[in-house]
Protein: Methylated-DNA--protein-cysteine methyltransferase
Amino acid sequence: MYWTTIDSPVGTLWVTGDGTALTGLYMERPATLDQPGWIEDDAPFAAAREQLDAYFAGERQEFDLPLNPVGTPFQQQVWAALRAIPYGETRSYREIAEQLGRPTASRAVGAANGRNPISVIVPCHRVVGSSGVLTGYAWGLERKRALLDLEGAAGRLPAPAVVA
Structure:
């Protein structure tokens, strides 16, 4: 398993991979990197670095990278739904639950969203409360707001746009 760091406007990103695909993108150093078998190496992440730099520069709206997030079948469904949310748009937890054919599973969608191991690239920041208000983001609402601002989506959210 490999890892590297990438500087971004929302802070340092820790990117992990298996040599073939990305397995994680974190905004805080994951404890797993301290376990045996992890190798710090920039080489496996050249394409990820290039695409993330372009995204943060406002030059890329979609990522084209091999991904291998580890999760349950339901989490995988939620993460696929997240990848289908277009740049600059948001969806509610309820809308994703309904899209998955499980209209009463908003909380389960929220839990899966919160366990997304490949943030930014699998855009969990594009999920908001049913009223459009920013809610729960593992990396902090300030970062969520910054990512939505970058994409031009934050300006379409109702006020107050951030709740504690």
